[in-house]
Automatic annotation (TrEMBL):
It comes from Pararhodospirillum oryzae. This is D-glycerate dehydrogenase. The keyword NAD applies. Keywords: NAD, Oxidoreductase. It holds the Pfam family 2-Hacid_dh. It comes from the Bacteria. Gene3D superfamilies: NAD(P)-binding Rossmann-like Domain. Coiled coil: none annotated. Belongs to the D-isomer specific 2-hydroxyacid dehydrogenase family. GO terms for molecular function: glyoxylate reductase (NADPH) activity; hydroxypyruvate reductase [NAD(P)H] activity; NAD binding. InterPro entries: D-isomer_2-hydroxyacid_DH (IPR050223), D-isomer_2_OHA_DH_cat_dom (IPR006139), D-isomer_DH_CS1 (IPR029752), D-isomer_DH_NAD-bd (IPR006140), NAD(P)-bd_dom_sf (IPR036291). GO terms for cellular component: cytosol. PROSITE patterns: D_2_HYDROXYACID_DH_1 (PS00065). The lineage of its organism: Bacteria, Pseudomonadati, Pseudomonadota, Alphaproteobacteria, Rhodospirillales. CDD domains: GDH (cd05301).
Amino acid sequence: AKPLVIVTRKLPDPVETRMMELFDVRLNLDDHPFTREELCQAMAEADVLVPTLTDRLDSTVLSHAGPSLRLIANFGVGVDHIDVASAHQRGLTVTNTPDVLTEDTADMAMALILAVPRRLVEGERLAREGNWTGWTPTFMLGHRISGKRLGIVGMGRIGQAVARRARGFGMAIHYHNRRRLHAATESALEATYWESLDQMLARMDVVSVHCPHTPATFHLLSARRLALLRPHAYVVNTARGEVIDENALVRMLSQGELAGAGLDVFEHEPAINPRLLKMDNVVLLPHMGSATVEARVDMGEKVLINIKAFIDGHRPPDRVLPGA
Ligand code: GLV
Ligand code: GLV
């Protein structure tokens, strides 16, 4: 019999079609978010589970894994919703979908880096609301991007892709990462490494977050660290909301201790702090970093390749190891 693959959310049509050709698939046709019970049920029945970031696979849910479940092939690169260590203890392999969303997510970060200082959304809203009374020398002034210092927190694939873009806009690239880049990569990006995140934050004009959310990066931008930023600095987050202490960020924005923020992710998605909704100097997006047809089809293709490799007895290309 073909392996039973249970997919928790609606995926792009070409991906679902291909899955149906290859496996015995159970799709989520009405795309409702799985309840905890449904997740546990799927764990108990499936040979392969294809979850995504809206599914919380903690150790309790994982404890419902049935005897046939061997692979959790996540649709998405971030795996902070999965207790990977607990999955491994149960002998489950976990895979994700890196690389194929790197450029699109970096585009979204760059879009926010441009949009917030140049007041793009605020201006658009004003024009649309019919409140434009004409050009004047002092109307809607924002701040220049070129020549400013961009501090990248987390210099993986996405962080580096942002660095390449930002250089094209004349920004000076700075970064903090657990590990320093190889000298050749660092010099190709003309990036300055800061071993101390605190020291970097104190000197940046724009800070953009590109590290994964792990126990080590939860509230990495804590109230204390955010307070190191200068009042003219902007914060951009396209990674995970939990990396920033959102309450502290909101407090600082409302007290004028930061110039603005561009946020594609939030601590309690899909909830957005209502105070943010009232601020003109923030751009808020509903987690759209990898939301292109191309990325989502490619992510589905990666899921298929990981499942196929695993079922054929090979090591799937995108295994996620505990603590990675
Ligand atoms: C999207 O946020 C992902 O992790 O793929
Ligand atoms: C994510 O895929 C990263 O490595 O930046």
